[in-house]
Write a structure and sequence with these properties.
Helix content: 55-70%
Distance between the termini: 59 Å
Shape: elongated
Structural class: alpha+beta
Order of helices and strands: HHHHHEEEEEHHHHH
Number of strands: 5
Strand order of the largest sheet: 1-2-3-4-5
Radius of gyration: 27 Å
Length: about 375
């Protein structure tokens, strides 16, 4: 009998999980799709390249959508079971809430492993591949990306402004360029005219500038160089052909190696430690949500799916706000990264266990929440 109940709950959660994950992923992808569609319409980028970009973006989206979808699936599943009095029937048959937890935890472990794979393996692979392909597309279509009287910043560290741009001959006039690729010595370049293009092997983007000046400001120095012609080559400065590689693009082994390196600055080391802990702490949230969502879902017996959705949004918002706050403190060195990134999971796990205990004792959670809001409102009104 218990095996039948377990399979029934797993089937209920799985169907809602797959549907929720598809919806959440599509919603998060819509903002990116607008920009990717612009590549096809205005720059003539092949649909195959755009499709590859979407694939490369998927791991970074799945890291968020899998825990979100699992939380909503458990809330809706137990909300329906409670509304149809199926939970009551199970209890009458001698099945306690503790005995209903194993199938929910089994689904949570699957969701956790999926998120862990996306976080540790998929994100660095997808980010690096996406940046490589983006730079390749940019090199092949650089002449189509520049617009006159618009700041062009498609390449990290470089901002270009031009008063006039001849799209047929690729000639720019009234040029201002800020080159901040070297933070210790940024350059500001003024030129009356120039041409833009890419090298024959499509490996470099170059700007041939005429009649201008280069202003270089260092820590304790300032240099001015006038030129009749200056060729500015924009090559791919990142590791493995990736522009602007950062801690989010590193694999687990690379993060650990950079953290242990004596040459790594303290600020960068803290960011890498926070990222390393986040790669493992965030997937564990799916398992935590299993404990939190089950008793909360049983409270929505009359409110239906709308209450389950609003509850999931509230839980996710609280979790992500707390996680973002603690991660900021970890990156500033206020809290140890290991403690800061795992603390939200510990807090929500304790809250979920208490909610589960109250649900097993047939205690309603809603009056307690309402009482807490009343007390908070009274304190706010007090002078």
């Amino acid at each position: 009998m218990k095996r039948i109940f377990s399979l029934y709950i797993i089937r209920e959660i799985s169907s809602l999980f797959l549907l929720s994950m598809a919806v959440f992923t599509l919603v998060m992808l819509l903002g990116r799709l607008l920009k990717l569609t612009d590549l096809v319409i205005t720059r003539g980028v092949p649909l195959a390249d755009v499709g590859r970009m979407v694939v490369y973006l998927m791991p970074s989206l799945l890291v968020f959508t899998i825990p979100m979808a699992f939380l909503l699936a458990v809330l809706l599943a137990f909300g329906r079971l409670s509304a149809d009095n199926e939970i009551t029937v199970m209890k009458a048959g001698g099945v306690s809430l503790v005995q209903l937890m194993p199938p929910v935890l089994a689904c949570g472990i699957v969701a956790m492993l999926m998120t862990l794979a996306a976080s540790t393996l998929g994100v660095p692979w997808g980010n690096n591949a996406f940046k490589r392909l983006s730079f390749q597309v940019l090199k092949q279509n650089v002449a189509l990306t520049i617009r006159e009287k618009v700041f062009w910043d498609d390449i990290p560290g470089i901002v270009l402004y031009t008063d006039h741009y001849d799209e047929e001959r690729h000639i720019i006039k009234g040029v201002i360029i800020h080159d901040g690729r070297d933070p210790k010595r940024p350059l500001t370049i003024f030129a009356s005219s120039g041409t833009v293009g890419s090298s024959p092997n499509q490996q470099d983007i170059y700007l041939v500038l005429h009649n201008g000046s280069i202003h270089a400001a260092g820590k304790n120095e300032y240099r001015l160089v006038n030129f009749d012609q200056y060729v500015m080559t924009v090559t791919n400065p990142g590791k493995n052909g990736v522009i602007g590689s950062n801690e989010q693009d590193m694999t687990i082994s690379e993060l650990r190696r950079q953290i242990a390196a004596p040459a790594t600055q303290k600020e960068q080391r803290l960011k890498m430690q926070a990222e390393l802990n986040a790669r493992f702490a965030f997937p564990f949230a799916a398992l935590v949500f299993a404990v939190v969502a089950m008793p909360l879902g049983m409270q929505n017996r009359r409110s239906g799916k709308s209450a389950g959705f609003s509850t999931s949004i509230a839980v996710l918002l609280a979790y992500y706000v707390l996680l973002s706050l603690l991660r900021t403190l970890a990156e500033k060195g206020t809290l140890p990264p290991g403690l800061a990134l795992w603390l939200p999971n510990m807090i929500f796990l304790a809250v979920g266990w208490q909610l589960l205990r109250m649900a097993s004792l047939e205690q309603s959670i809603i009056p307690i929440i309402q009482d807490a809001f009343v007390r908070l409102a009274d304190k706010v009104r007090q002078p």
